UniProtKB/TrEMBL annotation:
GO MF entries: ATP binding; magnesium ion binding; succinate-CoA ligase (ADP-forming) activity; succinate-CoA ligase (GDP-forming) activity
Residues noted as binding Mg(2+) in the record, renumbered to the chain: N208, D222
Pfam families found in the cross-reference section: ATP-grasp_2, Ligase_CoA
Chain residues that bind substrate: N273, G330, I331, V332
Species this protein is from: Aequorivita aquimaris
Subunit: Heterotetramer of two alpha and two beta subunits.
Name of protein: Succinate--CoA ligase [ADP-forming] subunit beta
Similarity comment: Belongs to the succinate/malate CoA ligase beta subunit family.
Entry's EC annotation: 6.2.1.5
UniProt cofactor(s): Mg(2+)
Amino acid sequence: MNLHEYQGKEILNSFGVEIQRGIVATTPKEAVEAAKKLTEQTGTGWHVIKAQVHAGGRGKGGGVKLAKNLQEVEDIAGKIIGMDLVTPQTSAEGKRVHQVLVAEDVYYPGDNEPEEYYMSVLLNRSTGRNMIMYSTEGGMDIETVAEETPHLIFTEEIDPAVGLLGFQARRVAFNLGLSGKAFKEMTKFVTALYKAYNESDSSLFEINPVLKTSDDRIIAVDAKVSIDDNALFRHKDYEEMRDKREENPVEVEAKEKGLNYVDLDGNVGCMVNGAGLAMATMDLIKQAGGEPANFLDVGGTADAERVEAAFKLILKDPSVKAILINIFGGIVRCDRVAQGVIDAYKNMGTIHVPIIVRLQGTNADIAKKLIDDSGLDVQSAIEFQEAADKVKEVLS
């Protein structure tokens, strides 16, 4: 579950990470009131207006602007709220901005020049350990840094049995070239950041930039946070942060119906029971010359109601040219699934794309006969290759 910047900062702050303070506003007038309140709290005269959408690169799309007075706060907020923000991480249509974060200006003058760093905490899947990735090149796309100057990216792997050790936090500060007060502040920052990542059950914390201010404070100016969905039962307060407006509406609907669905860019809809079989089915479609339009696991209770719901989800995608249903009947009987397909087909009326059904396992022979005798425009298959050939045939 992805969070907005202001939500991620709330979590960071609750674990003692110093953040760029800000207040959320949904209208230009609210933005002005937020700016006034921030001035009272922080003394800041300038404010940063940030679009709150689930996408990076907001500044490049015009979603992050500096306001030097209250009139500019109102004008900029009015332009950003309601805009369709296009960034390198959105579609060509962009994402509608419903709210902005009015944040304090932290690039104030002082004894030293402000410096920006990149830092993230995530799982290194190849080692099974959490990892802090960091760089002196903050404010830039980390992909660009990795490609052009990989020697400027550092990593610190953490043994899950013992957690982040003091010398590791100090090594991060040392590799960033810090000393004195900034060194101590960065050590505290890294320690608190890892604690926030670990105890919030997150899958990603990305801070870009981490700022060393002109008076050597270390603060999170941005926050990209993704919470592990499977751990939300431990964090009911985090679950309330979900903004469904930012998510794929079909995926939201699927979740509400208890279906595991991921939207993809392809032309063959998939309806499968079991994640492993779903992945194999997607490979099958690719080998047949097609592209999977979705990942859809209906689970072990593929009755008529669930099958019909799955059909409707798949058919919401206008790119779908065929549907492949691939069910292995272990716990669920194949004839029950077949009857579910038939009932769903009849309830939905005419379906204008070819449907191939491969049922294997318990009562597969009965299931095939049910489909063949149904009189519906549904093709049945028993073997994997047979299903692949039928997919290839309908796409040609």
